[in-house]
Give the backbone structure.
Amino acid sequence: MTTIEIILAVAFVTYILFSGFAIYVMREVIVRQKAKMKHYKSAKYQREMWNKRMSEIHQKRTVKGMSEL
């Protein structure tokens, strides 16, 4: 094998390794995003957000009502 063939072989192997690593990282990111979305779609999270919004609205109305007096 000539020097150029060895360099090309090493470059090709390096490319394959980096591609495999990139695919692995993307799969892990997708798995984590799916888990996060499952949490955000859960009924418990939706109830927490609903209660938070209602308490904010209640506080705004209470403050607005107090300032009108």
Summary: The chain has a mean pLDDT of 87. Residues 3-68 form one domain. Residues 3-41 form the longest helix (39 residues).
